[in-house]
Design goal:
11 helices; alpha+beta; about 60% helix; single chain; 4 strands
């Protein structure tokens, strides 16, 4: 069961009972934002499924179980509201209707999605929302990353994230969220280098200063 929430001014969330139901809702929104192939393009679910099976080198479509958290700026959702992705799925129509109901201003907005009680995922996705909604947060984050992480370390992180399926234009935002929230994952991938604890500490301080 999906539940729509307001977390902060202009930051909304969809909370699901399972990660897979959240993934089914967010797929086209998310991949219009982050996909190396489909960013800012209009595409069908069938087209994406064919691409993703090739991308993951799999005969099965595993997207709904591969990803547990989602984050999308309002500029992407507006494409769905304006009819560019019609016909919408039932879940996509539901989200469009929620935004029409709850977002009544012309201000930028952001939507995140996660499984209920997944505190780590919520924090990761909320970090993306703050990066987009608050220009000063983004400036502070980029300054901290530039100060703490060497070019060599940044390149390694960026290369890994691109291999995971992130578009180049969201890489710095993703580095920030992974360093802030995903120490265990980065360590398992042998990417948790000596400068990252300091970067994580500074990012945590920045994160706490914003609602």
């Amino acid at each position: 069961m999906l539940k729509f929430k307001t977390l902060a001014p202009n930051i909304y969330a969809v909370e699901g009972t399972t990660s897979s139901e959240v993934a089914r809702l967010f797929l086209r929104f998310q991949e219009c934002y982050e996909s190396p192939k489909f960013r800012d393009k209009i595409f069908t679910l069938k087209e994406f499924k064919e691409y993703y099976k090739e991308f993951t080198n799999s005969t099965s479509f595993t997207y709904y179980y591969d990803w547990v958290g989602f984050n999308v700026p309002g500029t992407i959702v507006d494409k769905f509201i304006n009819g560019r992705f019609n016909p919408l799925t039932r879940q996509e129509r539901w989200l469009v209707n929620q935004i029409k109901k709850f977002h009544k201003t012309a201000e930028r907005y952001y939507i995140i999605g996660y499984k209920k009680n997944s505190r780590g995922t919520l924090k990761h996705e909320m970090a993306h929302a703050k990066f987009h909604i608050y220009p000063s947060y983004r400036t502070e984050v980029l300054h901290a990353l530039g100060k703490c992480i060497s070019d060599e370390e940044s390149i390694k992180l960026a290369d890994h994230l691109r291999e995971m399926g992130y578009h180049l234009k969201v890489i710095m935002d993703e580095i920030h969220a992974y360093v802030l929230c995903e120490k265990s994952y980065l360590a398992a991938e042998k990417l948790w280098s000596k400068s990252l604890p300091k970067a994580q500490e500074e990012l945590e301080e920045i994160y706490k200063r914003y609602p």
